[in-house]
Amino acid sequence: MFYWLLEVVGPFPVLNVVRYITFRTGGAMITAALFVFMFGPWIIDHLRLRQGKGQPIRSDGPQSHLVTKKGTPTMGGLMILSGLVVSTLLWANPRNPFVWIVLAVTLGFGFVGFYDDYLKVTKQSHAGFSGKTRIAIEAVIAGAACFAFIWLGRDPYATSLVIPFLKDVVLNFGWFFIVFGAFIIIGAGNAVNLTDGLDGLAIVPVMIAAASFGMISYLVGNAVFSDYLQIHYVAGTGELAVLCGAVLGAGLGFLWFNAPPASIFMGDTGSLALGGMLGSIAVATKHEIVLAVIGGLFVLEAVSVIVQVASFKLTGKRIFKMAPIHHHFEQLGWTEPQIVIRFWIISVMLALAGLSTLKLR
Prior knowledge:
The chain is an all-alpha fold. Helices cover about 70% and strands about 0% of the residues. The chain is globular. The two termini are about 40 Å apart.
């Protein structure tokens, strides 16, 4: 809105700062944070009143959760998404198609997560709606987004996978890239969803990844910087930095209420939406492999579940005491704050490793 307003008002030197992506990214971050701080308590009270018993706690999970987390409301992702949407509409360039595509994926995945949370709360069961149906809906949303990215790209790189460290090596998938890109987006959404199991565990790594991809988006969308770093230039993706700034601000506001002991859980509403957003930004900026590095913690959580299930089905034995892997460490005797903070540290280290690939070409 502010960007559009500048065009309506006409040339006005003081307002020219609004044209800069860096300024609007900072504005989006502050706006989203203030929005969540202001309306967060009202949203929590409203959800607690509506949900009654709160999020159902799995009986086969850590036994301590049946006591410490019982009665806590879920769907806290609504706080994050509301701050994200308001902030993005205010600060992003409304003529940029990448903004609308990524926002559509975010809200689409958020709706899937919201419906899943709704079923869990109303039925007081940890089982939501059919997993196959859920994946199918996510596939349609992600596939449509990837098709749009290819259409916007209009060059061979739009359907290619760029390999980090190797500036001239790309794998052209053709139209099969829609399937590959959709897999990345769906995988990111569900990986973040699996990570959301302890107070504050998912939101900080998401913010770290969002900050990292905010920088990547800005560099990839800038012809001068992308040429200097010898990374693939994708016109228009720089505007995605504004969305990343909004996620960072909304995440900070949400963490205020989600810090141990949490007043509200993110739920599938937030985790699926934020994971889908990170995945779609990675596909748009041609940094899918770098997402696996920066979001390595999410990959680890997802792989731990896959390995656990596969091992039990094939051998009847479990690799971990409990999956996802953060519950494994709980069973080993680590306290919740120890697990959360140590996983945050790992996320920072992985983000630095991922960002280093920008120069190693």
